[in-house]
Design goal:
Length: 174
């Protein structure tokens, strides 16, 4: 039998590109809490209640990554915590990138994309994902989203749809 060929450079690329925007305990807790709330487990369930307490503590930190804020905003939207949802969406609004009549979010310190005449820029999948979480947080509210939120959501949806490839999909399955 032949020994497998090491593809360390390729493996590193795929592992990093698929891990999302941030790799820490807060994002993992937010992912799990979102999954529990989407089941739907009630916010009164002890596991969900404890998870939301941890997320509230994390949300009060000043130095949260934009990706983390997007996840937290969606988690609090699902939990019906309007105040936390609004505070996070307000914070995210300050970090939004507005271009060509659309709105999206990108990772801090990212190089601006080049404007090439025949090349359509596609954002990294983590940026499409975090922008989609902001969209979900805006549209997930009780009572229904206000007209202002719907207008903002349409600008986000415009950017997300511009990231689709010619087959209607995106750069990854995220």
């Amino acid at each position: 039998r032949e020994k497998p060929v090491a593809l360390s450079g390729i493996n590193e690329y795929f592992c990093v590109s698929l891990q999302g925007g941030v790799n820490d305990e807060v994002t993992l807790a937010a992912y799990i809490t979102i999954a529990l709330l989407e089941i739907p487990l009630p916010v009164t369930h002890s596991v969900v209640r404890n998870a939301l307490f941890c997320l509230e503590t994390a949300a009060n930190q000043k130095e949260n990554h934009v990706y983390t804020k997007a996840l937290l905003a969606y988690a609090f939207a699902l939990a019906g915590n309007r105040d936390k949802r609004k505070a996070l969406l307000d914070s995210l609004e300050k970090e939004a990138v507005r271009k060509d009549g659309s709105v999206h979010w990108q990772r801090p310190g990212k190089e601006p994309e080049a404007d090439l005449p025949f090349h359509r820029y596609r954002a990294p999948s983590a940026e499409v994902e975090m922008t989609a979480y902001v969209l979900l947080a805006q549209l997930t509210s009780q009572p229904a989203p206000a007209q202002e939120e719907l207008t903002s959501a349409s600008l986000i949806a415009k950017w997300i749809s511009s990231q689709q490839n010619p087959n209607g999909g995106f750069s990854s399955t995220q």
